[in-house]
Amino acid sequence: MTQLEPFEPFETIRKVWDEETNEWWYAVVDVIEILAETKRARRYWDDLKRRTLKQSGIELSAFCGHFPMKHKTNNRTYQTECAAQEGLLRIIQSVPSPKAEPFKRWLAMTGSRRLDEIKADPLELEREKYRLQGYDEEWINARLNSKTVRNELTDEWQKRQVKGREYGVLTNEIHSGTFDGLSVKQHKDLKGVEKGNLRDHMTPFELAFTILGEAATTEIVRGEDAQGFDENLDAARRGGRSAGKARETFEKDFGQKVISNRSYLEERKRLASGRTIPEEQIAELQGLVAAVAEALGGEEHHFQTVTTELHRRFGMRSYETILIDEVDPISRFLHDWYDSLTDDDVPF
């Protein structure tokens, strides 16, 4: 038996790092499930709160906060009652368990390990901030990469006598060249973003081409030793055009539009609500897509035409991301499209 083995059960406890309090917050029901050795941790926790309040007048919920966490069984996200180390130590006083002491040592070890992680990776706090908002790891990596590339570019501008509002003008030139003439403001309006940074609402593909545009501009600036606003403006336009051409090639080769009218964060929240459609409705929509593609000519590029149009009109990236309230509009659109192409009935 190794020294770490007594801590292994505790590693399944869900937790989030809160940068405001600079502490781990732990799912209370997970802790109770292990300490009380019960499969009905939610009921145990509710009973414990009522009993403690009646016996001692202490409201255990006062030691708790709520954080979004994925459920262990259905993988959906819920607001979950959590407690930090001090609150947990008070809560477990009311849970008789031989595992209490090992749990206390694990709490101390976890907090110390977290501080070591932050020292080793200064970006870890930023990663945790995005995780708490509901972003996935792929998106977080892309977003942090975009910040690194952005900082490299602005460092070059600073060294080359770019000043004040000129930063915004140059950024807009790169963005416009990358995204088919869309300014930053127009892109925000397209997504319905009223406040905050547009990049926090971009899809991974949008972030990827944003990175490409700014990285290309940085290389041009360095390679030609651009000085002052006018020379950097020319570099920004060329960098944006370069990324725009790459985006167009990608869209043509893969039949998928990069520019999206959806906020990636809001879409993540919608999917986490669990209102996506069942398999039988997915099969029905797949049949409609196939019928329209066949009516168009039945070639591979006809299928791409249909899926591209669904993405443009409804922001659809895959059948699995369609929500229940989107089924009828998509179905009606496909039926109308099919009827405009042929007098035959839909073949199913």
Question: What's the gist of this structure?
Answer:
Helices cover 61% and strands 7% of the residues. It has 348 residues and is of the alpha+beta class. It is flat and about 70 Å long.
Protein topology:
Blueprint: E1 15-18, E2 23-27, H1 28-35, H2 41-56, E3 64-70, E4 77-83, H3 85-91, H4 100-120, H5 124-133, H6 137-159, H7 166-178, H8 184-191, H9 204-224, H10 228-254, H11 264-272, H12 279-296, H13 300-314, H14 327-341
Antiparallel strand pairs: 1-2, 2-4, 3-4
Helix pairs in contact: 1-2, 5-6, 6-9, 7-9, 7-10, 9-10, 12-13, 12-14
Shape: flat
**Rg (CA only):** 26 Å
N→C terminal distance: 62 Å
| Beta-strand segment tally | 4
Widest β-sheet, arrangement of strands:
1-2-4-3
Number of domains: 3
Helix content: 55-70%
SS element count, helices: 14
Strand content bin: 5-15%
How would you sum up this structure, described in words?
By secondary structure, this protein is an alpha+beta fold. The protein folds into 3 domains: 118 residues, Mlu1-box Binding Protein, DNA-binding Domain (Roll), CATH 3.10.260; 133 residues, no CATH class; 68 residues, no CATH class. A 4-stranded antiparallel sheet has the order 1-2-4-3. The longest helix is centred in the C-terminal third of the chain and has 27 residues. The N terminus is likely disordered.
